[in-house]
DNA sequence: AAACATTTGGAAAACGTTACCCACATCACT
DNA sequence: AGTGATGTGGGTAACGTTTTCCAAATGTTT
């Protein structure tokens, strides 16, 4: 049995060139499908590559050309909606040479900056930012340095593409569903936003706007009732408590996110209220969990998969053509009706 | 207002050297805290670095030294248990220069190989593999090339460290809990494993073994009943259907994973059975979701956070000292009793 | 046959670091 | 004064690619 040496030197392009009896330039050309290679040389080089098990060093490549590496910045691995997006991105990249790496746990502008810097330091070819909170100027500066696509933020920069769900319309869909069931006192739980700029760009703000607009449209303007908390399970719990303490509590609660709706369900269970008998509950995002029979949450589906694959497509386009004008893609959400919504008692 | 040029050349070590009036060697030394720098030179260099906003290129570094990059291979972003591990890893790395990048969606040996190759191509300094399914020989070869820590696999290689929950004991804890409640017909749903080697190394196999062993210990050997499906929600659903169709159906179902338990709950809801009135249900992993009031699943907690931080610590140690003997860390699980388990009717 | 275009292949200079040397100055001790 | 140890700084060759030339060979048109 052959004992491998403890430190096996990596096979380089020089080894391949020697094996094939050609220059390193030739090998490089073949590998990159560049101009100036004869069929004969190509086959010899490819044979040598296979025989030696050569793999190009991304590090060395980075110094001259591409790294074939893309970075995805993810605020939170726990949010299952992001998993759908990742699936979409991954699927689009499967047929390409690109490799995807992600970071998670960026919840403020400081850590976002740290992560994006790290990606640039590593010469990544393109970045996908999911729901970033950094100020627009920072995103712009970033996109000047490296091809970038932003998901989940309704920006209009000439520097980067954006892919979004139409949150305004989506909120309207859910209000329409609830109003159609006969509800009047439909309340909303929003993610509290103070920053003036983000107020116009963040999905949560647009969902609240869409809610307000749709309530007016259905002649329910006087019943508009919003609890301002956060997009977390705790936020949902507290939001529900606030709404239930009103002198005229709502018969339906439309949470701005599914995780929020889960918190609402917790609060209702605790208060001894039945769903949808006493109160209807709806969420937003249609996370996988929402489909579980034990929960069966009515929600708005964002087509996360399509968001992801669209973002990947745009990014590759932008890497190829750095000057292409920026695109803003807006996808249409759909309402998914399940067991937590029903007619008011 | 100063208009930035469209293509800003990156600030390199040469620029810093010129600005500080020293050699590039000097700058490099200061940056790496290497020997041979006077306090005066250090301060001049650091000033130049700050002034120019210099950041070292990881790509160039990779060709000579470290990249300060660690890779985490994750089978599935959707499994919330992995998020706990990531938190632990991230926390341990926060005070260091290292940056973490992950990949997800590796569910077979082929894609695992592809991902690990990609990480090596990019000269990552160390790898953390979570629940890999590759054959041991492949893991060994990998660990020979790059410092590696494996989580969720009870291997005993001299090449890499492992961090695991004591799955055998954990299963025993849950059987003890259920038996203590008065259950006799306690069934188990396992992840079907055919590979002979993995049978000895994979947590799922150890959980099933632990279940069997504990049943015997409690004098319930004759009631051992295992449904062999997969560790997915569907697997749980089908497993439950199989068990419920027995002529003597179990009064308690211990699923090998929380996601499986969720599928079990679906099947029970569908069958019109109450939990824990008709059937008690327990899972394994204590995913965040298990704590949701609407679910309130009894489970075994694996201390994912501690698994992650331990793995990170071991990895950094191994990067520093390549020759340190391999360690196998086994952490103790705890049972978390919630609403889905109760005495049999 | 001369002139020119095209194909085929390679030499060599980047790319931005680090590591291995060597040189010089300073200081303490014989 | 001579010797050796120590501190301080830099020159330069890697590291493994890609890219820009340039030269030779071959083919095509006058």
TrEMBL record, chains A, B:
The UniProt record lists the keyword DNA-binding: yes
> Transcription: present as a keyword of the record?
yes
Q: What is this protein called?
A: LacI family transcriptional regulator
Q: Using the record's annotation, list all stretches that form the HTH lacI-type domain.
A: 11-65
**InterPro entries listed in its UniProt record:** HTH_LacI (IPR000843), LacI/GalR-like_sensor (IPR046335), Lambda_DNA-bd_dom_sf (IPR010982), Peripla_BP_I (IPR028082)
What CDD domains does the annotation carry? HTH_LacI (cd01392), PBP1_LacI_sugar_binding-like (cd06267)
UniProtKB keywords: DNA-binding, Repressor, Transcription, Transcription regulation
Its lineage reads: Bacteria, Bacillati, Actinomycetota, Actinomycetes, Micromonosporales
Species of origin: Actinoplanes italicus
Named from the GO MF annotations, one term is:
transcription cis-regulatory region binding
SMART domains (UniProt xref): HTH_LACI
What Pfam families does the entry give?
LacI (PF00356), Peripla_BP_3 (PF13377)
